[in-house]
Amino acid sequence: MVQTSIYLSSLKPITSQLNTMIRFIFILTMAGAMFSCKNEKATKEQSAEQPNANTQTAPAQEATLSSVPLELIQRIWEEGTQVDYIYHYHPFTISLSERAAIQNTMRHIAESPAPITPGCQPAGIVTFQIDGDIVLRGDFYFDTNCTFFVFYDKDKNKYSNYMTQEGITYFNNQIQQGLNLRNQAQQ
Questions:
Q1: CB-based burial label for 92 (10 Å; 0-12, 13-18, 19+)
Q2: Which end of the chain offers a freer environment for a tag, N or C, measured as fewer CB atoms within 10 Å?
Q3: How far apart (Å, rounded) are the C-alpha atoms in residues 66 and 57?
Q4: Model-level pTM greater than 0.85?
Q5: What is the mean pLDDT of residues 76-96?
Q6: pLDDT at res. 144
Q7: Residue 9: its pLDDT value, please?
Q8: How far apart are CA 112 and CA 126, in angstroms?
Q9: Where do the DSSP E strands lie in 41-145?
Q10: How far is Cα 59 from Cα 84, in angstroms, rounded to an integer?
Q11: Overall number of domains in the chain
């Protein structure tokens, strides 16, 4: 089961109508997660036949930072306890604390290092935690031609990775659901 918490900054106390909407969004999210699991094999077969779409998301530039080490990705996969997305331009955050949800977010980070494109602005901050300690922190970029992560250590850029197509789809869905929920709550 995937647990996604969306905190809306402009909501009044939750009413039964809002509660129903949250359940509906949760059911849609679960259905999407189940659908993506069933299509994982088909996606892998298609990706073997097609060139990597992740390299086409940003203008051609040399990568300036290395990719996140596989050992760190594996450690978060096996031991991760919390992932938080804090959006700069949307009035909500996403907090994931179930193992399957955390592992799913690790699939959003492509293996390929990404160039840091000067015209791109971060859409928000992502943190990966193990037992309360932040083990990986960075910015996520999510805009036209800007779909990548830049991770840092002590406020200095350290790693950069493209966002996978699965990650792009996830962010599109989460932003749309959050905006729909906010609009419905304001009516």
A1: buried
A2: C
A3: 18
A4: no
A5: 92
A6: 85
A7: 39
A8: 18
A9: 82-87, 93-96, 124-130, 133-143
A10: 28
A11: 1
